[in-house]
Amino acid sequence: MSETYDFLFKFLVIGSAGTGKSCLLHQFIENKFKQDSNHTIGVEFGSRVVNVGGKTVKLQIWDTAGQERFRSVTRSYYRGAAGALLVYDITSRETYNALTNWLTDARTLASPNIVIILCGNKKDLDADREVTFLEASRFAQENELMFLETSALTGENVEEAFLKCARTILNKIESGELDPERMGSGIQYGDASLRQLRQPRSTTAQTKQQCNC
Amino acid sequence: MGHSDLEGESPQDSAITRDINRTFPAHDYFKDTGGDGQDSLYKICKAYSVYDEEIGYCQGQSFLAAVLLLHMPEEQAFSVLVKIMFDYGLRELFKQNFEDLHCKFFQLERLMQEYIPDLYNHFLNISLEAHMYASQWFLTLFTAKFPLYMVFHIIDLLLCEGISVIFNVALALLKTSKDDLLQTDFEGALKFFRVPVPKRYRSEENAKKLMELACSMKISQKKLKKFEKEYHTMREQQAQQEAPIERYERENRRLQEANMRLEQENDDLAHELVSSKIALRKDLDNAEEKADALNKELLMTKQKLVDSEDEKRRLEIESGQLKEMCRRELDKSESEIKKNGSIIGEYKQICSQLSERLEKQQTANKGELEKIRQKVEGCEKCSVLFNKEGRLKVVSVAKEGSEEDTDEEKEALKNQLREMELELAQTKLQLVEAECKIQDLEHHLGLALNEVQAAKKTWFNRTLSSIKTVTGAQGKETT
After folding, report:
1. Are the beta carbons of B18 and A17 closer than 8 angstroms?
2. R_g of chain B, CA atoms, integer Å
């Protein structure tokens, strides 16, 4: 692959089954809604290069199975994730109530500095809404999460969700709050490009990423 | 599939429903929500989740179930699913945090090392691990992504040969795509697995070749066993090698996590306990209240029974007394009637005696009177006095006429007459007195009869009613 980028971030998409994680990913990568999609078994993978604040960032996104029991399979993907989309379905309170569990998992299994954005998906199904915007934004505030309501069907806020997350990570790196080098020892970011950026700018052709998941 | 299986409440109902909609959604048989295909699929998955509580419903099952459903009726598909899960050992993959699945990944990588070493090394270089591409293959037995005719082949092979054919198929897939995969980087490889690999087998030719390749690969059970052992020793070593602090930290994290979950569970259970305790207490209170009320009622009923028995006894005594009294009264009345009867008889006898005597007297008087008349007729002077009316109308004339002769006689007759008249008056008086007495006695009799009748009637009624009430009360008590 000849894409060039300044950073590589590993992302996770987590949340209860049927909240639209795979569709969010598909919408983000393919720019269209995934009709007739099977439910995810194990993990799926997708990637895209985006431009954030003048930097090109490659997002490697792991889309996980929603059923709780698959956590032990998806656990290895938490390690070294820089950002996560925590997805619930605004038409299903059950998926909203499960957020605490997902959050605990993310905070214990992934880097403690992981940047999480809460996504209330299926925004287009406002008539069947069971979770209000206000309620979810309060939850996000209490748990220091960013928050957006998205629609994988219309594409509304999908790109924004990924970009917002990436931008926050980038800001943290630039402010020194996140040190990719140090993190690399324990919890890894998409680090090859970061390391390279620290060195005087040289070839943009990437060495292979050192994914240790 | 027994209906009892379906009636059990499966906690994963909504999860199943959600996934059924997302199992071969493009396939004609399964595309309609609420259609036959989805309905049967739901039933099988739900039945399995009830049947196998330990595993329950697990994402991925529905693909296998759907493939089976395309070949056989619901009940049979369920049976075959159970067979594959239990006897073929698919359920082992889902157990204990997928430990067996990870072992299978390790075995696959070791097999790759032996059969396709260049690809193995390439994957090593790009840090591509088996769990990233083979999870879905193994958990769904290749049913989720590949064209159905190929899936059918794979399942047939599996049913014939056992679960280890998943290695044959996986190796064949890797081997067939080796040249392409060797050109890819990490992402490229993952993307290649996602689209081009399944796409390749839309050609039946390719699918057939793949199956032939899979069948031709001989993977001995011994080798798999050996790799399994290796995996376990590796895991043990990993556990030991870990820096103690790290290990403890991990352990600690794990324990904290477990602790948190358990606390949550504990909270839930405590809550449940409290609420059920409250509910039970409430039930108990209600039951006690009810019992109290029933006891009270019972006591009251007992008291009533005692009272009723007393009343009954009292009434029995009373009725005995009444009977006795009535009998006495009856006897008395009867004897009175008898007495009255005899009085009446006596009275009648007296009456008849009296009238007899009166008659005698009258006939005697008449005879005497006749004698006198005859005598008077015999006397010329006196005959005038008598004859006309037979009465002594002209006594004064006759007096004069007969003078001395008749004087004496006259006097005697007169005296006699007077005596007789006196006697007559006395008899008449006696008669009147007798009649009075009769009347009096009749009145007495009437009174006595009335009394008897009245006595009879009231006594009867009273006894009857008292008996009625007694028997009525008794009847109530006994019921």
Report:
1. yes
2. 68
User: Is B453 exposed, middle or buried, given 0-12, 13-18 or 19+ CB atoms closer than 10 A?
Assistant: exposed
A67 with B256: Cβ contact below 8 A:
no
- Other C-beta atoms closer than 10 Å to the C-beta of B68 total 21
B190 touches chain A (CB under 8 A): yes
For B71-88, what is each residue's pLDDT tens digit?
Answer: 999 999 999 999 999 999
**How many contiguous H segments (helices) and E segments (strands) does chain A have?**
8, 6
Q: Which residues of B361-398 are buried (b: 16+ CB within 10 A; e: fewer)?
A: eeeebeeeeeebbeebeebebbebbbeeeeebebeeeb
Contacts of B263 in chain A (CB under 8 A): none
Q: Give the list of residues 6+ apart from residue B178 with CB closer than 8 angstroms, or none.
A: B116, B118, B119
**pLDDT at residue number A65:** 85
Q: What is the maximal distance between C-alpha atoms in chain B?
A: 207
Q: What is the ipTM of this complex?
A: 0.79
Amino acid B465 reads: S
Of A18, A37, A73, the CB nearest to B131: A73
Report the gap between the CA of B26 and the closest CA in chain A (Å).
6
pLDDT tens readout for residues B419-468: 898 999 999 999 999 989 889 888 988 888 888 887 777 777 777 777 77
Q: Is B190 strand, coil or helix?
A: helix
pLDDT of residue B114: 92
* Model pLDDT for residues B115-131, shown as the tens digit of each residue: 999 999 999 998 889 98
- Return the C-alpha torsion angle B294, B297, B299, B305, nearest 10: -130
Interface probe, candidates A37, A38, A121, chain B, greatest B C-beta count within 10 A: A38
Least confident of A145-159, A176-190, B459-473: A176-190
Taking the C-alpha atoms of residue B159 and residue B154, their distance in angstroms, rounded to an integer, is 9
User: What are the Cα distances from residue A208, in Å, to A47, A173, A193, A196, B186?
Assistant: 15, 21, 9, 12, 8
Under 8 Å between Cβ of B133 and B184: no
| Residue-wise burial string across B230-246, b where 16 or more C-beta atoms lie within 10 A, e elsewhere | ebeeeeeeeeeeeeeee
Q: Please write the tens of the pLDDT for every residue from B136-161.
A: 899 999 998 898 889 999 999 999 99
Contacts of residue B144, defined as CB under 8 A and 6 or more positions apart, other chains included, come to A38, A41, B60, B63, B136
What SS3 class is residue A17?
A: coil
Paired strand residues for A10: A60
Poorest-pLDDT segment among A19-28, B10-19, B267-276: B10-19
pLDDT for B373-415, tens place per residue? 888 777 766 666 665 555 555 455 444 555 666 678 888 888 8
The predicted model scores a pTM of 0.61
Is the Cβ–Cβ distance between A119 and A161 less than 8 Å?
yes
